[in-house]
Write a structure and sequence with these properties.
heterodimer, A: alpha+beta, five-stranded antiparallel beta sheet, elongated, B: Thiol Ester Dehydrase, Chain A, six-stranded antiparallel beta sheet
Chain lengths: ~140, ~150
Amino acid sequence: MSPRHADVEVGTEIPERTFPVRRLDLIRYAGASGDFNPIHWNERFARSVGLPDVIAHGMFTMAEAARLLTDWTGDPGCVVDYAVRFSAPVVVPDDDEGAEITVGGTVKKKHDDGTVTVALTARSGGAKVLARSTAVVRLA
Amino acid sequence: MAINPDYVGREYPASEPYQVTRVKIREFAEAINDPNPVYTDPSAAEAAGYADVVAPPTFPVILGMAGSARAVADPELGVDFSRVVHGDQSFRYSRPLVAGDVLDAVTRITDVKVLAGNEMLTLETVVTGADGEHVVTAGMMLVVRPEQSR
């Protein structure tokens, strides 16, 4: 059931969700997005530039956090404005489990034009991977 | 080699319009593991009020990445791509992208600065439809890490 603007308040929380990310997801995302930076698929290269291991594309995390919003509102066209800062890498080990990204959101402001501002959080492996991340979404 | 600050304001237009297709939207939606039917099923998209399947909110990064790649490939700008990490990303939408859109994109360098030894390159890609109307603006900040951190 999609929330209505009238029923949402400052402080309303969007329940947290956890999304898996494995090496195969990064290969697939590289192909779909055109971002073939080797830090996202080549462990040898990632380590040579000082990273602990292969890391996920920041845009993969941003896409999963967007799912939280579009599944909440029920409409992918609801997003008016969306901005994130990548504060730590999502490290993806070469095993069957990979990593997990847990995203959550809280309504911070209600606007008169039918939109709300949502503050988003994302964690992976104990690190805060998104910072100062917000979206303005339109509700029915 | 440092990024040339004189390049703030320089524009890198796409050489040809970008055609948004059902196949590419499906590929992108599958890559982010998002099963929402409005990304893949034209009848579900139509029932939701769209002319055709809708692109996920972060899909326009394809145009932003292509634009930043054109800027980073400019040898005079002085960016070492092997040291680049993604610092931040934003989208300001006038409407979602849908299959059938034919889009123009212009990427512009909006800021170059140095902070704690890192060079920060900020780019903005303005995407417009065939009618000239604004569709989305994608902002991207790239951090070029210093040589010694390798």
